[in-house]
Structures are given as C-alpha cells and as structure tokens.
C-alpha cells in the first residue's frame, strides 16, 4: 500500500450535488464492502453480493475501561497501563511479553508487571491483560467470580467483514495514513455518477483520516483518551453534523495490526462537551471531596470549566460513572 494521500477533486456544482444527493448520502452511510458494491452497481447496474462471514462482536465498553484505569492508577502509571491495553489481542489477553514491552518503552519490567496484575484484578472486565487461560481462571477464582475462558467474551455474529477505510502507521514520532488502496481503483475505473460518488466519499474519508491523526495524536502515540465530538468533526470537515455522523458510522481504520471503529474518537456529547470528559471531570471533583452534593458539583464545574449543568444532569452522570466503575 502506498503511503500517500489520495487526492480527489469532485468539482460538483451545487445543482449537480442536489441531483446526486441521495447517491452521495447513501455512499457515506455504507460500510466499505457495501460502498464498493454500491459504486459498482451504479456503474454496471448489477449489485455484487459478497460472501458473508462471521465477525466477532466484542461486548466491552472501552470508555469505561479507560475511566477505571484513570481512577485506579496514578498519572505516571496510566501511560504504562494504556501501553498494556494497546497490546491486547481481540480476546483481552496480553499478546506481547511484558519484558519486551518494557524494553521497547524504556520502562521497568517489575513495575509494568505489577500494573498488569493490578489491571487484571482491579479493572472490569476482570482478567484483562492475563497472559494465559490458566492465569485468567486463577484470578477469577481468587476474586470469587465465575470462571470464563477469555477476558473479553465475544459472540459470533453473521455479517460482512470489517474492512478498514484507511490505515495508520506510526514511524518514529510521525503518524502516516493511507486510504484503502481500493478507493483509488474505484475512482479510476468508475465514470459519471459512480465516479462522483466514489470521489466524494474518498475525499471526505481522506479528510477524516487527516483530522484523526492530527487531533487524536495522543491516542496513537501513548494511548491517552482523546475527547472529540461530532460537532467538532463537522466543523473541521466543513460538513453538517448529520453528514459527519453518517461518515463515522460503521467505518473502521487499521492501526497496530488491529481493526478499530472510527466512532471510538467521536462520542456522544453533553451540551457540546464530550460525555467522557464530563464523566472524568465529575470523577475528579468527587475524588477531591466525596461529600459534595450534585448542586455543589455543578457550581464547581461552572467555576472551573464554565459548564452550566443542572443538578439533575450531574446526578445522571454521577450514576453513570458509578455504574460503569462498579458493575460488569
């Protein structure tokens, strides 16, 4: 795959865009496999059916895992904790020896191993970062929990394969990205309406990839959670919020040998503020003084951050935070 950006230039005049709008919108909503078929159907009039496959559906809320990491570990320990999380396989086992990770990160092996064991015993779902099934079972038995064979339970779900729209690679301190090479083929081989639809989506995906690698750099470099809303994405891309939402839904990128959902960077917001950022701010305030009332927390957030939340809103998100940190 060539590591360069696919430059496209749709040059769609307003009238033409209005005529094409239904096709352009549908082209944004589809997963990559379905999008490629859609472009082919516009060009040939025949929709190419792809063989369905079983793709594991992961039942884990990574936002809550990250929230627990920030609650359990000190700021200096969090970087190492996120390093471990980035090296988990799809089932939640640590796929790289701790010694190798420590050497690559310039960290103390004993400290990293201690953090790994704490994640396995103190962060839900318990057993994350286990190295073997036997260790997982031993940890769960010690905690008095039902034994399972993998840290992250998955359920085979029929569906199309998760094909990334773009790939991100970290070379030293430099992030590079490339669109799925099939975009170039689709644009080059299509004509008329099909070509315009392919160019329109390729251009927006290219800009999304550029935005993510720029604004979410801390996640790629050190695994630090990044707060970004659909409103911000829409402003950066120069599109409506609904267009940004369609563009993100069901799209994936590849990084570090894994397939990640693009939606992980673009979550729900509370009055324009990322929900996870609100949760973390409430957590920080209550850690300072657990006796604070909802009204007092609302006042503190207004003074410190300029956020204007009602007592009822604070109470709602305190309960969400409490549930996320105490229940599976």
Which terms summarize this structure?
8 strands; globular; alpha+beta; four-stranded mixed β-sheet; 55% helix; Arc Repressor Mutant, subunit A; 328 residues; 11% strand; disordered C terminus; disordered N terminus; two-stranded antiparallel ribbon
Strand and helix map with partners:
Layout: H1 14-29, H2 32-44, E1 53-58, H3 62-72, H4 75-86, H5 98-105, H6 109-122, H7 133-142, E2 154-159, E3 166-171, E4 174-179, H8 181-189, H9 192-215, H10 217-222, H11 230-237, H12 241-248, E5 252-255, E6 258-261, E7 269-270, E8 273-274, H13 275-288, H14 294-305, H15 311-326
Parallel strand pairs: 3-5
Antiparallel strand pairs: 1-2, 3-4, 5-6, 7-8
Structure, described:
The chain has helices at residues 14-29, 32-44, 62-72, 75-86, 98-105, 109-122, 133-142, 181-189, 192-215, 217-222, 230-237, 241-248, 275-288, 294-305, 311-326, and strands spanning 53-58, 154-159, 166-171, 174-179, 252-255, 258-261, 269-270, 273-274. With 328 residues, it is an alpha+beta fold. The protein has a four-stranded mixed β-sheet. The protein has a two-stranded antiparallel ribbon with strand order 1-2. A two-stranded antiparallel ribbon has the order 7-8. The longest helix has 24 residues, at 192-215. The protein starts with 13 loop residues before the first helix and ends with a helix.
